Structure prediction request, 980 residues.
Amino acid sequence: MINRLAILSILLFAGNIFFATSYSQIKKSYEFDFKEDILWLTNKEFKIFVSTKKGVYTLNNVQVLKTKNRPSIKLSPLGRELFSVGSFKISSFKVSDELNLINEINTDLNYELKKIISDKYGRNYFLLSDSGEIFAHKVGNEISKGEKIYDSGIIDFTWSANLGQVFAVSDQQILAIRDNKVQKSFKVSNPISSVHTFESLYKVALGHEDGSISLVDQNMEGEINEYKVSDSKITSIVSHPEDPHLFIGNSKGELYTFNTISKKILPLGKIHKADLKLEIIATYKYGDEKEFLISYGEDSKIAIWDITKFDPDFKLYVDKRIGQIKNKFFKRQKNEDEISYSKRTSLDVSSDYFNKSRQSIIDSIAGTKRRGQTKISMVNNGSVKVKVDPFREVIVNVGSNLDPSLLGVKELNYNINEINSFDISNVLLVNKENGNSYVYNPERDKRIMREEQEAISLAQEISRQEVILKNNLTEIVASLKEDGIINEVDLSVDSRLVKEKDSTGKEELNLKVSFLSKGVTAEIGAQTSDYGAGKYNLFDSPSAKTLMDFFIKSTEENLSGYLEEATRVTFKITGSTDKSRVNSKLPYDGEYGNFKNFPYYFQGSLDGVTIDKQKGILSNSELGFLRTYSVREFIENFTDVFDSTRNKYIHYSEESNLFGADQRKIKIELTIHEIDKLSALKKSDEYRLSDVDTEIPSSSKKINGYALIIGNEDYSSYQSNVSTSQNVPFASRDAESFKNYLVQMYGLPEENIILLINGTYGEISQNLSKFQNLMKFDGKNKQFIFYYSGHGMPHETTNNPYLMPVDISGYTVDQAISLNDLLKDFSIHDYKKCTLVIDACFSGASRSPEPLINLKGVGKWRIKKKPEGGSKKSYIDFDFVKSDNQIDYMNPNIGSKMILYSSSSGEETSLTDDKNQHGLFTYHFLKILKDNKGDISSKELFDLVKDRVGKKSILDFNKPQTPEILFGEKINFNSDYFLK
Prediction:
């Protein structure tokens, strides 16, 4: 019997079957009564079929299949076919406006089935019999006879889209079945009653006979986490489509929710007679979020529950928002030059901006949870309690007993805790009478982590590549328009970095480059260069053909370095049409072959398309799909750029709700997976902290002053002729750790420190000027500390030493920072003491695998000789003197209150300590400070550094490295502390 199918979405939103039953985050919105016990339910979004002993029905109780037995049914994941088992027959039906038989086979087995599942696209169906057997059937042009792939004892099974396999459970065992064979097994102690794959968490959820559930990693390794839910057998588990929640049913017909982060269990009561079964509806078309839970169990009713109000994983939500902010932040602004861009996106600026943005997002979410005003009350011992409902109270030390009414809240911040809730992380109270401030802010790790620095450097590099792509595209379009080849078209390119997880749950950093071609709204009568009506071939659209030519050309020229052999590449190709309907059959020439239930996404939802020459093109969704397949066919057959990569194609078709040429688009989103692992980009050793980076002690010698710290590591991102092997390993780490010692050991306020990571010439010059102005206007009785780690170079003709900004070539050394000039400029100011620490060599060699340039004719570097007859008041260049006598170290030409520690001398190389991930000199310098808690004289410090670095360089590298010292006449080298 064939009847026209009712459309569920009309029913769901007509409002004629509405219930207000509510349990906080879950609300029963609809209920349907079939007057017969429901045996099976299957759905694909709002397309729902139910089975009773009389046959198969739509949700509005229209019978679409009449049988004499109890039919078992499963709707294809694409929603286009219904698979049915019963009466010694296995059948497949086409689902459109009507239910039409496609294939049917007879079978000798009269399956009494417990469950039917399918693979991702409905090409293979798996049947679980009441006796625990598993049968597999292929469904294509015909239905295969089937293969028994497991004999007995299986209680439940489910499909894993992540791993492309079946998870089956017996009494106390999980089986992984792929290619119809058991690949792996895993034993558990608690008898199992049901199984579900929690794809977004990469977990397998097990229900147990005793009413508990377990979560197991999908790789079937590691520990099993078990949670008691109810006193009755678990019969069904499904996961929320977006949020970290499980819905659980038991044999008594009771429903529970389980928060996988907080581990909280919420019982919602008995909602069906027994043996509760659950399914999920989730659609996100046009940005309209609809999420429902379907329930049924041993009775005649189906309930549909609204589950849109559940809390998301707040940390994940904030990370996604910050990812969006970062992608926007790192876009090159209009008319922004390289120096301005590097300054705006520097580590300090960007990290500060992202931290503030993250805090703002967290505070705004927490603000939606808070109830009432902030309450301040006195406790004992000069402390007050700050309470904001519903968050945990915090205690703030105010030093004495105060009237709480005198205190006002100036700052209030939150963090996300381990149970997906919020805690107060920062409170700043102000005394309204005297202005005194009181702070609650638990100690935080202030280190700028290397991962953030590398992420910023990578984002900057991708932005530079995008500028090149945009400029190339602009030139191409302008030329083609001038030649009259294209007109009235909009072509664009965009790139972004995205952290995602692969199918195994491993986090990866992916580069996404999007190429877009769309028409523009033309004047009446004007011709456009987009697709003509009913056209789908790439060559029918000059603009789409231009985009493809540019895509191939730019990929070859700008991205081919990232396309290493076996690199995973995903093509997401979207074909968009406007609202103009296909009123009659459009011709399809069959050049791409026939498509039968071919998987694609329409309006963002997984679907299947069927097109052949006889059928033609009947809808915009089919037209949009063919436009995407034309692009795929071009990539596969007209270029060899992607021949060695592992390619995956995903087709999207979209229909706009607007008319016009500007709605007709082709978009290619190219995803290069694990971009940070490719050799075309800077490779970094596994990040680990050495002993000098942690547990930094506090010194009794606190200092007052300012510091300028520079760590220049990444030269290759700023100079096209410099490779990653010419970078300076761990220079940024050196700088960050040196800063941490000034803050944590010597108490130098963080706001008094200028930290530059990968400083360009403009940035270094600007901050040197700022540093000298501080010497000039606030130098009295203040200490000034200058630290540099990076490349140093001698001038090719004079051998004078230069510090190398990351954007200055080794062939133009005289454009870098002259160390002689720097010392001269520092020496003219009045301060208590100026300390310089330089971990660089000036021989033309370097601690990177390759030197910055291959110098010719450069001998021993020198800083100009002292004048004969001693020093003069005018400060000239200086030299390093090898001597153990203090008098020989003293050199008035450096400045009377200056002292300089240098990592090496003469033609030596400043080496890298790969084990501890620092420069060899910096590591031992910090190690000695740490061992002595900062309480060490300049002489003791230098003697130890010179001894240790000298020995290690010979023992570990078979190269000499001899640290040097230079200081002015007012420095008491033997007795003065390093910093005081």
Summary: The domain at 450-677 is CATH 3.30.1330.60 (60s Ribosomal Protein L30; Chain: A;). The chain has a mean pLDDT of 82.
